[in-house]
UniProtKB/TrEMBL annotation:
Bias (Polar residues): 616-632
Region of interest: Disordered: 603-638
UniProt protein name: Outer membrane PBP1 activator LpoA protein
Native organism taxonomy: Bacteria, Pseudomonadati, Pseudomonadota, Gammaproteobacteria, Lysobacterales
Pfam families xref list: LppC
Keyword list, A-Z: Cell outer membrane, Cell shape, Lipoprotein, Membrane, Palmitate, Peptidoglycan synthesis, Signal
First and last residue of the signal peptide: 1-21
Gene3D superfamilies tied to this protein: 3.40.50.2300, Tetratricopeptide repeat domain (1.25.40.10)
Entry annotated with the keyword Ribonucleoprotein: no
C-alpha cells in the first residue's frame, strides 16, 4: 500500500506557522534573547535545515523553564521533516502532555501515532487519531485524517480508511490529490465485490461514498447503475448589475490547443469534430464574449503522437489542451508523470483509471445511452424489459449499462438476445424469447405506455434495442408480423442522422435518445440545417461528431465552474453537460420518435435561461486557419 505524504513545501509552511505560534507567550514571558533564538530556529526550518533546527529547539528547551516541552515538540517535528522521526522518539518521551497548550497536544499525538505505525502498533495509532471531542484546526485536519486513514488500514478497517480518505478528497490538489484518490480505490477494491454491492444497495442517492463504490465496482469489472446527473442550474447566467456580456462562470484561458489526428482511420471523425469546434467558437462571438487563440495539432492517432503533440502545445504556451481523440491517445497523455497544462480529453482512457486532478474527460459513451434508456422506460411504467442487441461493441456496452440501471430502478430483465450478424429471419429468436403478443389493432404504437397482453390485461413490458438502422429495419417488421406490439426504445445508433421517409417507415413508433442539436431542440445554438447546408461534416451520422465538437468548445469556458458547482450544467449540442466529482463530463440526451418515417423530438425543445428561442444561427464558417494542422486561429475583434 502506498501512502500519501503531504508535499515537503506544505510541511515546511506548516512547521513555520507552528514555530511562529510557539513564539507567542503562553504561560510565561520570553526574554529578548529567547525570542531571538526562536526566530533563528524558525529561519533554519524555513530554509529546510531541519536537523540544525531541531538542535536549536533542543538548546532552547534546555535554557527555558516555561516553554521547554513546546520547544521539544518543535524539535521532534523538525526531525520528522528530515525523515528521522526515530531520533525524535527519546525527546517525545520527555514531553509532559499536560504542559502543552493550544494545538500542541494534537500535534504531539500525531507524532506518537506516526511512531506507533512505524512500529506496527496499529491499535495505539488508531486510539491516538480517533479520540472523541478532538477539534483539529484547519492546518492539522489533513494530517489527522491522513494518519487516521493509515491506522484504520493497518487495523484491517479498509472501508473506514476509504471513508476517511474521501473526507480528504476536496481539500487536496495536485499529486497529493491524485495519490489519495488512487488509495481510496485500492482500499475499496480490497473490500471485495460482494461487500461493495451490499453497501451500495443500502446507500441513498447523494451519499458521498456511492460514486466511489460504483467507481471501484466498475474497475473490478462490474456493470454499475448510472443515474442521470442532477441538473439544477445552467451555466452562463447573466450576472445582475454587471456588464451585459458578463456571464456567471465564464472563464477562458489565453491560448487553447486542439489535438486531433489528421490522417488514417480517424481523419473523417476529426474533421467533423474540428469543424464543430470552430463553428461553436465563431458563434460565441455573437455574444462578444472573450475568446482565446486556438492552435490545432496533429496527434497522429497514436500514443506517441498524442504525447508529443501535448508536449509541443505546452511548449508553445497553451493554457488548456482539448483532445486527443482515441482511447489509447488519451491513456498515453494521462499516463505522463505530470500534466503541466489542464486537459479536456475527447474520450475516456481504456485503462478505467480516474482522470488526473487537472484533467477532464468527455466522450460519446454508449453506456450513457443504455442507462438513460432504462431510466426512460421505468419512468414510463415499463419494468419488464426484453433486450435485443447487435454484436457490435457499442451495443454490448449499452446493454450492460441498461441492465445495471434497470435493476437499480427496480425493473426486471425478462429476456435478452444478441442478434447474429447477416441473418434476415428472426422468427425463431422472437419465438424463443416468448415475447407477449397482441393483435396489432389493439396495441399502442410505441406510445410509451404499457402494452396489452394476450388476455387483454395491461402489462408493463417493453423492448430495448441497440443496433444500426439496417438491422432494426429487418427486426421491427418481423416483430409486428409475430403480433409483438410492445413499445420499442433504442439508442441513437438506430437513426442515421437524416430523414429517409421510405426506409424509416419500418421504424415508426420507435423512441430513441440522441443529441438535441440534430433536431434543433436546444435554443441558443446555431441552426443545424443552416450549418449543414454549408458544411458536409454536419450532415448525416457525422452530425453527432459535429455536435460533439461544438460542445468541446462550449465546455472550455465552464470547465472549472462545472467541477466546483455540482448541479450546474452546460446546455450543449450533444446533450445537457454536467461534470461529476471525478472530472468526467456526462450527457443527458433528449428523446425522439419515428413518426411516419420522420424522426421528431418528443416533448418540445429544451429551455435555457437568458437565451431567446429565436436566436439567430451562425452565419460564418470555420476559417481554414482553424482547421489546418499546427495553424493558429485568432478571434476577430468583436
Amino acid at each position: 500500500m502506498r501512502f500519501m505524504r503531504l508535499s515537503r513545501v506544505a510541511a515546511i509552511g506548516l512547521l513555520f506557522s507552528l514555530a511562529l505560534a510557539a513564539c507567542v507567550p503562553a504561560n510565561a514571558p520570553r526574554s529578548p534573547a529567547e525570542l531571538a533564538a526562536a526566530q533563528s530556529a524558525e529561519a533554519l526550518s524555513r530554509q529546510g535545515q531541519f536537523d540544525q533546527a531541531a538542535q536549536a529547539w533542543l538548546a532552547l528547551a534546555a535554557q527555558s523553564r516555561g516553554h521547554a516541552d513546546s520547544y521539544r515538540l518543535l524539535a521532534a517535528e523538525a526531525w520528522r521533516e528530515e525523515g528521522q522521526l526515530d531520533r525524535a522518539a527519546p525527546v517525545l518521551d520527555t514531553i509532559k502532555r499536560q504542559r502543552l497548550s493550544g494545538d500542541e497536544p494534537l500535534r504531539f499525538d500525531l507524532l506518537l501515532a506516526e511512531l506507533a505505525l512505524g512500529r506496527h502498533d496499529a491499535a495505539t495509532a488508531l486510539r491516538l487519531t480517533t479520540q472523541p471531542n478532538v477539534v483539529a484546526p484547519p492546518a492539522l485536519q489533513l494530517r489527522l485524517l491522513e494518519w487516521r486513514a493509515r491506522a484504520m488500514a493497518a487495523s484491517g478497517d479498509r472501508w473506514g480508511a476509504a471513508r476517511t480518505r474521501v473526507q480528504m478528497d476536496g481539500q487536496l490538489s495536485g499529486f497529493d490529490h491524485t495519490q489519495n484518490r488512487q488509495q481510496i480505490l485500492e482500499l475499496l477494491n480490497q473490500v471485495g465485490v460482494d461487500s461493495l454491492k451490499q453497501r451500495a444497495a443500502a446507500m441513498q442517492r447523494g451519499d458521498r461514498m456511492l460514486p466511489w463504490v460504483n467507481e471501484a465496482l466498475s474497475q473490478l469489472g462490474v456493470a454499475v447503475a448510472q443515474p442521470p446527473p442532477d441538473l439544477q442550474q445552467p451555466v452562463g447566467t447573466l450576472l445582475p448589475g454587471a456588464d451585459a456580456n458578463v456571464r456567471e462562470g465564464y472563464k477562458v484561458p489565453a491560448q487553447v490547443a486542439l489535438l486531433l489526428p489528421n490522417d488514417g482511420n480517424y481523419a473523417a471523425a476529426s474533421t467533423a469534430i474540428r469543424e464543430g469546434f470552430f463553428a461553436a467558437y465563431l458563434d460565441a462571438g455573437r455574444n462578444h464574449a472573450p475568446r482565446p487563440s486556438v492552435r490545432v495539432y496533429d496527434s497522429q492517432g497514436t500514443a506517441d503522437g498524442a504525447v508529443k503533440a501535448y508536449q509541443q502545445a505546452v511548449s508553445d504556451g497553451a493554457r488548456l489542451v482539448v483532445g486527443p481523440l482515441t482511447r489509447g491517445e488519451v491513456a498515453a497523455v494521462f499516463s505522463q508523470a505530470q500534466l503541466p497544462v489542464p486537459v479536456l480529453a475527447l474520450n475516456h482512457p481504456d485503462d478505467k483509471q480516474l482522470p488526473a486532478t487537472d484533467a477532464s474527460e468527455f466522450g460519446l459513451l454508449p453506456e450513457t445511452e443504455g442507462a438513460q434508456a432504462a431510466d426512460h422506460m421505468v419512468e414510463r411504467g415499463l419494468r419488464q424489459v426484453y433486450v435485443l442487441v447487435s454484436t457490435d461493441d457499442f451495443a454490448q456496452r449499452a446493454a450492460g449499462a441498461f441492465k445495471a440501471e434497470l435493476a437499480a430502478r427496480g425493473g426486471q430483465l425478462a429476456g435478452m438476445i444478441t442478434l447474429p450478424p447477416g441473418v434476415t429471419s428472426y422468427a425463431n429468436i422472437i419465438t424463443g424469447l416468448k415475447l407477449p403478443t397482441a393483435p396489432a389493432a389493439s396495441a399502442p404504437a410505441a406510445s410509451g405506455t404499457a402494452a396489452p397482453a394476450e388476455n387483454g390485461v395491461v402489462n408493463d413490458a417493453g423492448i430495448f434495442i441497440s443496433m444500426r438502422p439496417a438491422q432494426a429495419r429487418v427486426l421491427l417488421p418481423q416483430l409486428r408480423i409475430a403480433q409483438v406490439n410492445l413499445p420499442v426504445f433504442a439508442t441513437s445508433h438506430v437513426y442515421e442522422g437524416s430523414d429517409d421517409v421510405a426506409a424509416n417507415r419500418d421504424l415508426d413508433g420507435v423512441e430513441f435518445c440522441d443529441a438535441p442539436w440534430l433536431f434543433d431542440a436546444q435554443p441558443g445554438l446555431p441552426n443545424r440545417d443552416g450549418v449543414a447546408a454549408r458544411l458536409p461534416a454536419a450532415r448525416g451520422g457525422a452530425a453527432r461528431l459535429f455536435a460533439f465538437g461544438m460542445d468541446a468548445w462550449n465546455l472550455v469556458p465552464y470547465l472549472d465552474w462545472l467541477r466546483a458547482h455540482p448541479g450546474s450544467y452546460v446546455p450543449g449540442a450533444s446533450g445537457q453537460l454536467a461534470a461529476d466529482q471525478f472530472g468526467r463530463v456526462r450527457r443527458v440526451l433528449i428523446w425522439a420518435q419515428f413518426q411516419n418515417g420522420l424522426a421528431r423530438p418528443l416533448g418540445g425543445s429544451l429551455q435555457m435561461d437568458d437565451v431567446p428561442s429565436n436566436a439567430p444561427p451562425a452565419t460564418t464558417e470555420p476559417s481554414p486557419a482553424g482547421s489546418s494542422s499546427g495553424g493558429t486561429f485568432q478571434p476577430a475583434a468583436d
